[in-house]
Amino acid sequence: MARVAIYPGSFDPLTNGHVAIIQRGLNLFDRLIVSVANNPQKQPLFTVAERKGFILEAVKSDPRVEVDSFDGLLVEYARRRGVHTVLRGLRAVSDFDYEFQLANMNRKLLPEFESVFVMTGEDYFYVSSRLVREVAIFGGDVTGLVPAHVASALRGKAIR
């Protein structure tokens, strides 16, 4: 039986840290479903379709990676997909606190649901989508923080 995990996130924008987690996840799982969360409480810079496109371009159509999106609870999405494992990246202790609470709530809602955490590499521990967005919007250089195609899209959103 294939080992499949969901790697959910807002990916607004996709960073090189996200890409590194995808690559590391493929060392652990046979397939990854990278799924863009459509959270109506957030005002994203990019549409769900744009974010899915960024991911597809970054993974170069690797057949082990499926790119999808979802609304609502992750556990309900996982149940619909028949997947019981989520992959999450951790950058700092503060991430762990939040992810620990989330993992336990998810297991309360779906007892067979498992969370697998991988540490972000030292090159990306300080990179977050929020910080990248802020730097880019004000015209800062995000080279090396995001894939080149995402940097180009971010330049189009910069305040001039």
How would you explain this protein's 3D organization?
This protein is an alpha/beta fold and 160 residues long. It has a single domain (4-123), classed as 3-Layer(aba) Sandwich (Rossmann fold), CATH 3.40.50. 42% of the residues lie in helices and 19% in strands. It is built from 6 helices and 5 strands; from the N terminus they run E-H-E-H-E-H-E-H-E-H-H. Strands 1-2-3 form a 3-stranded parallel sheet, sandwiched between helices. Strands 4-5 form a two-stranded parallel sheet. Strand 1 (4-9), helix 1 and strand 2 (31-37) form a beta-alpha-beta unit. The longest helix has 17 residues, at 93-109. The radius of gyration is 15 Å and the shape is globular.
Question: Key terms for this structure?
Answer:
160 residues, Rossmann fold
